[in-house]
Amino acid sequence: MRVIGVGDNVVDKYLYKKTMYPGGNALNFAVYAKQLGIDSAYMGVFGNDRAAEHIVETLKKLEVDISHCRHYEGENGFAAVDLVDGDRVFIGGNEGGIQKDNPLVLTQEDLEYIKTFEIAHSSIYSDMDSELHKLKELGLMVSYDFSSDYNDALLKKNCQYIDVSLLSCGQLDEEEVENLLKQVYSYGSKLVIGTMGSKGALVYDGSAYYRQKPHFIQPVDTLGAGDSFFTKFILHYLAGKKDNPEGDHALLLISSLEEGAKFAAKTCLVDGAFGYGIPF
C-alpha cells in the first residue's frame, strides 16, 4: 500500500517553551503512515526559512517522499500554541504562510504521480479545495479533514469529491453529531467520521453509526491525536477491504476504530504531533 498527504504543513510553535515541531494535517498523515510501516509521500508548499528547513530535514530523516513539493521564498506556515489552564491551545499563526500566495495547483505530472497511491489525504487548511475534483477523477480514495472550520455550504460543495470526511465535533452533543454525519453522507462522502475529544469518535457509513471510546492515558501532549487516530483507522480499513473484499463491513469498521484509538493514545505520549522539536 502507498499513501500520500497532499496539502498543508506547518511548524507548531510552542510559545511557552520556545520550541517548534513539524505538523499539519496532510503532513501528519504521511508521517504517521510511515511510522506504521506504510510507503508514504507528502506533497505541499514550503517556504525557505528555518521552519521549512527543519520540516524538510525531518521528512528526509523519516524517509517520507517529498520529491513533488514546491519551494518558494518566504515564511513557511506556522501555528502558535500556548498553555492555557494546563491545556495546549492554538492561539493564532500566519494562515499557511507562503502557501496562501502560492497554493498547490496540481499539474498533469502531479496527477500521474498521485495516481500511483491508494489514498490521498488533504484538509481544510491546504488552500486547495478547487483541486479536489482532480483527485477524485483519478479514481483513488480521497479523504479530507474539515477540522472544526466547516459550514453547510462548504460541506455541500466539497463532499461530492471526498470519499472519507473527518470533522472535529467536540463542541456538539451526540445527537447533533449524528445529524451532522448523516448530512455529510448525503452530500457524497461514503464514510463520515466525527471526532469528539474525550468523548471518543463516531463513524457513519450510510446505514449505521459506530462508536469508539478513547483509550485513556495520562497524555504528554494531545496534539496530533485526531490525525493519528484517522491515519491508523483508514489504513486498517483499507487493508481489511483489500484482504477480504467480501468481509463483514461492520466488523471491519469496529476493528478499525479500535486500532485508531490505540494509535492515538500512543501519539499522546510524544511532544508535538510526532516529536522532532527544535528551539526557535
Low-confidence blocks of residues: none
Output the helix-strand order.
EEEHEHEEEHHEHEHEHEEEHHE
- The oligomeric state of the chains shown is single chain
Beta-strand fraction estimate: 25-35%
Shape: globular
Structural class: alpha/beta
Tally of distinct domains? 1
Strand order of the largest sheet: 5-4-1-8-9-10-11-12-13
Record field, number of beta strands? 14
Keywords, separated by commas or semicolons:
280 residues; UDP-N-acetylmuramoyl-L-alanine:D-glutamate ligase; 14 strands; globular; five-stranded mixed β-sheet; alpha/beta; nine-stranded mixed β-sheet; single chain
How are the SSEs placed, and which strands pair?
Blueprint: E1 2-7, E2 10-14, E3 19-23, H1 25-35, E4 39-46, H2 50-62, E5 70-71, E6 78-84, E7 87-93, H3 98-101, H4 108-114, E8 119-123, H5 132-137, E9 141-147, H6 152-158, E10 164-168, H7 174-186, E11 191-195, E12 201-204, E13 209-212, H8 225-243, H9 249-267, E14 278-279
Parallel strand pairs: 1-4, 1-8, 2-6, 4-5, 8-9, 9-10, 10-11
Antiparallel strand pairs: 2-3, 3-14, 6-7, 11-12, 12-13
Helix pairs in contact: 1-8, 8-9
Describe it.
The mean pLDDT is 96. β12 and β13 form a beta hairpin. The chain is an alpha/beta fold and 280 residues long. The protein has nine helices and 14 strands. It has a nine-stranded mixed sheet with strand order 5-4-1-8-9-10-11-12-13, with helices on both faces. The chain has a five-stranded mixed sheet with strand order 7-6-2-3-14. Keywords: Kinase, Transferase. InterPro entries: PfkB_Carbo_kinase, PfkB_dom, Ribokinase-like. Belongs to the carbohydrate kinase PfkB family. This is Fructoselysine 6-kinase.
